[in-house]
Each structure stands twice: as structure tokens, then as C-alpha cells.
Amino acid sequence: MAFGLKRIDVDRWKRELETGEIAFLTHYWYDERFPQYRTVTKAGCIQIEKLIKWGHLYGLNPEWIDLRNPSRPHFDLLGDKQLIILKAEGLNSHIQKFQLE
Q1: Domain positions in the chain
Q2: Predicted TM-score (pTM) of this structure
């Protein structure tokens, strides 16, 4: 279940994703399977091969790509991996906004 999303942020993520960029969207989140996590970052790209190559940089398995909506393929980043990738990608605003450190 997602929380704290603004339509403008979701629309920006979709636009970037659809143009072939690696796009990031961080939001509050709860899933009873992962009660220790309170946020998730969706890292997506419409070009699956580009997303797979990007994921390899961070040790992400292509099988982890969420393809439930074929127009928005993405990895769900959680916990330590989320923080490591956000730092590496220079997305300090996500880290600060969601107090991930």
C-alpha cells in the first residue's frame, strides 16, 4: 500500500520512464510481507534491456523486475539496497525527504 504520493511526482516518473530514462519514484509504503520497511523506491525504464543493464550495476536480478504493468517495468528497491542506490544515483533529495539515513 502506497502513501505520500503526489500526482505530479507520479506523472513525472511515468514521463521519464516512458522516454527511456531510468526513472525513480520514492514513497511511503507498507506491505505485511516486509514490515521492517516503510519506504520503497521504484526504479523503472520502458526499455527492459536498459533496465536490466542498469540493475546489473547494483547486483539486481532481472527476475526481480516488476512486469505486472508492461508499460511501467521497474525494480522495487528496499532497505540498504535502496539507500546505496539512491546515494550512488545522487538522489539525496529522496534520502532527505524520507529520512532514510
Answers
A1: 2-97
A2: 0.91
